[in-house]
Fold each of these.
Amino acid sequence: MTNQSDQSSFLYGGNAVFIAELYARYLEDPTSVDPSWVRFFQELNDEGIAVSRDFKGTQWGPRDLKVIGAVDPEAAVAAAKKGDKAAKPAPVAAPSAQPGAGASRQAVLDSIRALMLIRAYRVRGHLMADLDPLGLVKREQHPELDYRSYGFTEGDLDRPIFIDHVLGRESASLREIVAVLQATYCGKIGVEFMHIQDPDQKAWIQKRIETIRNQTDFTARGKRAILERLTEAEGFERFLQLKYTGTKRFGLEGGESVIPALEQISKRGGQLGVEDVVMGMAHRGRLNILANFMKKPYKAIFSEFQGNPANPSDVQGSGDVKYHLGTSSERDFDGRVIDLSLQANPSHLEVVDPVVVGRVRAKQFRNEDTERTHVLGVLLHGDAAFAGQGVVPETMLLSQLKGYATGGTIHIIINNQIGFTTAPQYSRSGPYSSDIAKGVQAPIFHVNGDDPEAVVHVARVAVEFRQEFQTDVVVDMICYRRHGHNESDEPAFTQPLMYRKIAAHPTTRTVYARKLVAEGTVTEAEANALVTGFQEHLEKEFEAGKSYKVNKADWLEGKWHGIVQLSDEEEYTEDTTGVAEATLKRIGLALATAPQGFNVNRKIVRQLDAKREMIETGKGFDWGTAEALAFGALLAEGKPVRLSGQDVGRGTFSHRHAVLVDQDNESRYIPLNHLGEGQAHFEVIDSPLSEEAVLGFEYGYSLEEPNSLTLWEGQFGDFANGAQVIIDQFIASGESKWLRMSGLVMLLPHGYEGQGPEHSSARWERYLQMSAEDNWSVCNVTTPANYFHVLRRQLMRNFRKPLVVMTPKSLLRHKLAVSPLDQMVAGTHFLRVLPETENLAADVKIRRVVLCSGKVYYDLFEERAKRGLDDVAIVRVEQLYPWPKDTLKHQLARYPNADVVWAQEEPANMGPWSFVDRRLEYILGEIDIKAERAIYCGRRAAASPATGLYKNHAGEQQWICDMALAGEADQMPQPFVRATKLSRLTA
Ligand SMILES: Cc1ncc(C[n+]2csc(CCOP(=O)(O)OP(=O)(O)O)c2C)c(N)n1
């Protein structure tokens, strides 16, 4: 038996006649057909395609025939609104008067076959739609869309067929049915929606498009407005081409219809409750959208073309090219004001997607937009990028997840049928660039970009659908690119035929103006006047651009008020991150308490008891508890905390247990949300298995929420390189390029514990290499208390910087890695450097200072104790960047007779060695100390971060401790000498 999933291909041809017969039998007596067919026919019922078997008598006839093909969409939508998602769409009542009562079995078969044909159009009609303005993609007759495949002949064309309002008609001739289907599904719009599982959504689309043949009848005013928008879009590019010939602008020409589409989304969206639109897009057409949609002044853009900066000269930052910049504005759409924001983005295509979606989520949180209908995300894509970049499906994956949902994003693909020089057949395996969107059941509207009315209509349907169902929607606008990839590229090198066609092809505005003139909506003179009027306006703006001065940077406003730009080296003021003891105790007790009757796992009960003991004694606070206290104290101060990443609720290493799970019924309890009245919300989300999209999302979230602590945790720190683009392009450099601060925290489990090459190193050398201009903090803290402070510091400073923390694994349970409560109480603060803690020989007697960072400290500490050494001091650098030069200098200056060793677990080409080597040399040069340079003690340079053999690991670790504490300078490894196969250390 053929499976329902490929039903559409067997519903036609010779099968169609057979199936219609079978179906007729099923209607008569369901037990007379194989049960698998019964299931199939029932599924067709669900899709609103089938005929019910609710008839009586043996005489076939339309009077007996109750077609439920016309699912009543209004009833379905009403049911959905009531939240009754499971409710089946109500069947339309049986028609009261039908032609040919007592008609033959033939009439029934006609109805069934006609319904199969209708279904085929719904599924495959888009394949025959007229989508390509250039006519390069040939539309071929598809057999499933041929009525002859269903047993009809030409002689049947004019016979009335009962279809019970399926297309809004009780009955119609086959000729009429085909005409309606062609108009609806094979015009300038092709719709893909039959992959959607939700019957309400399908029914909604069917009704929305079938009743009006998938067209809006625009008023003369509406048409004129579309022409005006096209005139501006085209005129702006032409003007730039004229004034700045050959300058890169990645023009929109060929895709101008996207401007009226965006207008429509905002306008119709506004009517449906949208108040805020956050947008992301790549280079193509960006300047046009900045000017003509975001309403960035033309003169500002012209001034940037003249080489002037986009920000006032007193604002620091390295800036970015003009086609990457973002902006925000307020616009009035028919009396409704909408906040528009276009996210700045790097050249890396599509990577902005999760950032925008994260921003949308944060705005919805702040605006208490629980329905997610007031803040809308809109993403514009290129066709090659949408199909090619993995971050696209990763971002879509988030769209329906509890912790990341934003009520659906509207995706518009500016599908110019080329990616740089690469044609679609080399860009993707499926027929459409948009195919990936089917994975999240998004409806997809393909539309011919040369029919701006169709584009605007589709934009309208898309926003209506999104507002109704809170899912992603895709508009695939098929157009062309008039010039090369940029304006100085020669496209005919690679696409000569396409570009010959384009050269002869009139512009979208010209095509539309001719149409409006032909139908009498505007005169030719009026259409021309729009063009000349706009050019004159641009000329004036161009003149104004010559003396244009930006008077303020659009940042640190609104929710960012009170935050300042850090103007110099990080100030070493002590931050007020400590918290009153009573508050910490109150939070601690809440953490250790589950509600009455909640059946906590036995092992966790022990952990909760241990926490209670920490609170009662004020001693022995472990990592997980210190973290929870840091979060809890922020929450109690009214500052929300959001932590996302893989398995963060429990914690990869089973140390966090931020979510307790009842062992009887799996209900969840989050102690941090039960601290007391007035506290802020703690959101802890187990993320899907994505690094790039989730980290991008959290970064976006942090841009909107300066007063929330937003954290992303990698499962192991090395997995963060799956999100490297987000780190390089946004987190490290976003403030410098675009004046956008972020207080995002990245938690990266790191440390050499013999787990092999993949789980030892978070590769923090990369973060250190990217450190400059106080762009972020990079830390590897060794005590729970310092971790507590560094987290709280994120929101206590009057500026925001991302924080990258190497977090521990074995230290989570290490008996020495604990802190007393009094290191977290009021008056205490984060320590960038932790000095020697033990009572050693007098400072002048210290023969060696071992500097280190992170977990290796405890290995060194224990080895020193074992050896009973009292002339080797161990100093921990807890924050590597910003480099705590003064504090470190102060500590090193205590030991004038010491040599200085830098000990690390990582190979010499990794970890902090390259970063600290010269910096230490500068410090040593400035103080009175025996050492001139630090001696390296660690693994030799290596290709892979760690050995896969535990025995080797243990030997190497021991050797590092031995050498660091007692080795002579000439025994130390030469960091960059090639290691042999035998040993990474001694070759
Ligand atoms: C991640 C990434 N890889 C490569 C590039 C270089 N690049 C810039 S534009 C472009 C083609 C994009 O094609 P498409 O997505 O169809 O957009 P279009 O330029 O045609 O509007 C490429 C490959 C890039 N910017 N980003």
Amino acid sequence: MHIETLAVHAGRRTDSATGAVVPPIYLSTTFERAPDGEYPHGFSYSREGNPNRRCLEECLAALEGGMEALAFSSGMAAANAIVQGLEPGDHIIAPDDVYFGLRRLIGEVFGKWRLEVSYIDMTDLNAVHAAVRPNTRLVWVETPSNPLLKITDLPAIAAIARRANAISVCDGTFATPVFQRPFEWGIDMVVHSTTKYIGGHSDVLGGALITRFQNYLFERARKSLHLGGAVPSPFDCWLVLRGVDTLPCRVRAQAESAGRIAAFLKSHPAAEAVHYPGLAGHPGHAVAARQMTGFGGMLSFELRGGRERAIEVAARVRVFTRATSLGGTHSLIEHRASVEGPSTRTPQNLPRISVGLENAEDLIGDLSQALG
Ligand SMILES: Cc1ncc(COP(=O)(O)O)c(C=O)c1O
């Protein structure tokens, strides 16, 4: 079935008790045992499983074309559960511009775990290959990356990980399964911050881990979810799933506007560089065109005039909102280095944009007046 149909139907069924077309929210934390002590509906206690969570997990697995999904209380909770599955002394290969929260998690929470980590420019496949060690167990990819929109060649990375006997995980938050399905390129697991495009309305936190096949890191993540308890509430699951209904329509509209905004910025004398994989001059354009069916709604750009100029432009917008996060209906702009703090590697002259669902002409007009 096509993704638009899966987005509306996967994981849902008409409520057998009432005929409700939209799933009810099951707040009950506990479920009745049958006289023989069994749980005939498969639910015992909500930390272990809940009907709303199960609907969401089935839907996300179907959207990615995976075997199974786990829904978490945030994208970082999903990442945490994956890293927790590693043994002390294991080695991770991760992008040098990985979402800064993951770098902090590995350094500040897992520092005492004695994990080895190599942060590599994943666009340089020779460097990724050279980074492999006998103890490499996890190869983490984020494409397009946050905030530089770098593109990683998924089949090439999947092959390197396979040869190293490591599990490959792709953070697909920016791309969404509408534009990129990493399992089709041989990647083993996909992680999402469903807080972003999948939820789509900036009103719920969530995360997900989807696997293509049974493996020990997925099973350990399941244990971490069930025993550690970083579960999303039934209402959170309901909200994320409600967002999924419109996911294909939303992200296509956002990508169409992002393409127009990127072209506008590219031709503007104030912009030194524009990072959007849909632009023919983007270094990852050819790879993106091969492995994605659209280029997404995120872009960033670098301004002549440095940090002050970037902050000034972000201060002058009227339609865009100055806020972090992405993937919602409102267009957002942020001075990314300020968000990431003193240890940032992001260029100081870089505003990052999440394109919302406003009219593209209004957004271009707003940027035009802000650039002055
Ligand atoms: C690419 C990416 N991955 C993961 C996360 C973390 O997700 P969450 O904020 O839902 O924990 C974010 C958050 O901004 C992100 O941009």
